[in-house]
Amino acid sequence: MIEWTYHLDVLLRMSVALILGFLIGLQRSKEDKPAGIKTHALVSLGASLIMIIGDYGHRFVSEQIDMTRLASQVVSGVGFIGAGTILITQRKAIIGLTSAAIIWLTAGLGLAVGIGYYFLAISATILVLILLHVSTDFERWLSHRQRNLRFIKIRVDQVSALAPLLDLVGEFGGKVERIARKETGVMKITIRLPAGSDRTDLLTGLVKIEGAQLL
């Protein structure tokens, strides 16, 4: 018979996994990243759930159940979720790799909590949050240091507007710096224009694209 203390321990593991995933998702949501609070919290909680199932099976069903096999399936399976955040623009620029890496890492946090290694999971979460905060500020500092560059931000409400928008940007020698996709499907695109360029014609063409507007 399973003791009630084990059930409390399981509840604690799932709660910690949910909170850690929530914290990372909160930071990503503030940066308008495609995967936000719900995605990271669910990935962390789901990974801990799988690990707890393995722990339960090993303890109470059969010692022959290999917990590491379940963990390996989580690590490989979560890659499909991460792949959904990666985009390749028309100009062959790859974006979304950081979001994919963080989703993969969040699954690792859930696995650590699921097996009861709280110190590892909490320490890793703190390090990730520090890294994201410091790297974001550093990247913004570098952006402000770049001179003779012009940036515009565009909101895209329809996926069909993305292709003509990228074509328009390419005509004026622009480059997509960043695409942030929210869970609602709305995208915010940051465009970098060449030094000395006149964005008037680009904005005129933008008006003709349905589903895209200047921010």
From TrEMBL:
<keyword id="KW-0472">Membrane</keyword>
<feature type="transmembrane region" description="Helical">
    <location>
        <begin position="39"/>
        <end position="58"/>
    </location>
</feature>
<dbReference type="InterPro" id="IPR049177">
    <property type="entry name" value="MgtC_SapB_SrpB_YhiD_N"/>
</dbReference>
<comment type="similarity">
    <text>Belongs to the MgtC/SapB family.</text>
</comment>
<feature type="transmembrane region" description="Helical">
    <location>
        <begin position="6"/>
        <end position="27"/>
    </location>
</feature>
<keyword id="KW-0812">Transmembrane</keyword>
<feature type="transmembrane region" description="Helical">
    <location>
        <begin position="70"/>
        <end position="88"/>
    </location>
</feature>
<feature type="domain" description="MgtC/SapB/SrpB/YhiD N-terminal">
    <location>
        <begin position="15"/>
        <end position="140"/>
    </location>
</feature>
<keyword id="KW-1003">Cell membrane</keyword>
<feature type="transmembrane region" description="Helical">
    <location>
        <begin position="93"/>
        <end position="111"/>
    </location>
</feature>
<protein>
    <submittedName>
        <fullName>MgtC/SapB family protein</fullName>
    </submittedName>
</protein>
<feature type="transmembrane region" description="Helical">
    <location>
        <begin position="117"/>
        <end position="135"/>
    </location>
</feature>
<dbReference type="GO" id="GO:0005886">
    <property type="term" value="C:plasma membrane"/>
</dbReference>
<dbReference type="InterPro" id="IPR003416">
    <property type="entry name" value="MgtC/SapB/SrpB/YhiD_fam"/>
</dbReference>
<keyword id="KW-1133">Transmembrane helix</keyword>
<dbReference type="Pfam" id="PF02308">
    <property type="entry name" value="MgtC"/>
</dbReference>
